[in-house]
């Protein structure tokens, strides 16, 4: 009887057919890290390096500029001016807060974080760090003021590391020229896979990503490789290198931890969660998310996007069900508040889900399977940056009904928000030219236009 009922339920929810598993065969390439000497310091005395920027407040009028100086703390200043002011007459300065840390036998150099405030929206700024022959110049563009139909394009990258494949991913993303901000879904340097968590790998990673991170904000989300827990060598402070090196504006969204926070940027409200911090009821992260979600104003920021590291829906044998506990806790809210998209990493391949939910599950009833749900997010796993651990090429057979498309290739994604109703999403495998997308779909906003979407895939 129960068996028959289960079959009927499966048939009625329209999810009996699995999605597409790409047969694309990617050329085997060893996931060897690029040697440290290939990431040299910039020339000049005490030249600032590892420059990265992120949004510095809730609304996008501040930027946090972070950099490292190797020899001495001074100068601690970032000088900035509007790019239209060609002579830089109206130069303004902001002072950094400097920190250092020790990790086993490693001592960090001087890590600076300076917040530049009260910037104009939609304006290109130049900024300068260092002094004398170590002076370096960069630029960034502030986002447009939030509004329901403001177009904006995000790149999505995860599990990057510092291999040749990582470099292909970043170069491929940069070649598109479309991305305005990177949503980074965790697992940065992979320093922790080396003896004693060789923290010089955090330095080389900072130099590696600078070609992007100094010019456009990366929105940071912590992964398991940021934990750096090593009690065997006396290192018991979780996220120590990460928290020293990557600052986020968590207080601006009333968060009590840099590991979970939110920002508004153009037409998107972005919520960053921590898969490796407590999230059960009564915990700080749970309480924060509960009070944050009702604040989202879909008339101002129609697109509600969540970043986390461990995916809630994943049909790869790698890390299978690791996101299940967070799913049980947070999924009902994602559906209630009509989250549009949830981006995760962790699994080193690509996967896109159907709009499904599994919130009707009740342990006393016992029937549990995801069903199509127009209020549910699409879950996207983009842990395919290309790191030292290699590709996750072991998908579960056969493909479950919640999985729309999956492929074991390295790549990145782009989300081009057009207005309050439409966003064009593409996923790009590294082997293709930028004009080719391995997976593409027009996403329809869940609040303003909750219609069913159709996708297209290129399998070869
Ligand atoms: Fe991970």
From TrEMBL:
It comes from the Eukaryota. Residues 376-433 form the Purple acid phosphatase C-terminal domain. It catalyses: a phosphate monoester + H2O = an alcohol + phosphate. Keywords: Glycoprotein, Hydrolase, Iron, Metal-binding, Signal, Zinc. The keyword Nuclease does not apply. Its cofactor is Cu(2+); Mn(2+); Zn(2+); Fe cation. Its EC number is 3.1.3.2. Residues 48-142 form the Purple acid phosphatase N-terminal domain. Residues 153-350 form the Calcineurin-like phosphoesterase domain. Transmembrane segments: none annotated. Pfam families: Metallophos, Metallophos_C, Pur_ac_phosph_N. Gene3D superfamilies: 3.60.21.10, Purple acid phosphatase-like, N-terminal (2.60.40.380). InterPro entries: Calcineurin-like_PHP, Metallo-depent_PP-like, MPP_PAP, PAPs-like, PAPs_C, PAPs_N, Purple_acid_Pase-like_N. Residues 1-18 form the signal peptide. One of its GO terms (molecular function) is metal ion binding. Belongs to the metallophosphoesterase superfamily. Purple acid phosphatase family. This is Purple acid phosphatase. It comes from Tagetes erecta (African marigold). The lineage of its organism: Eukaryota, Viridiplantae, Streptophyta, Embryophyta, Tracheophyta.
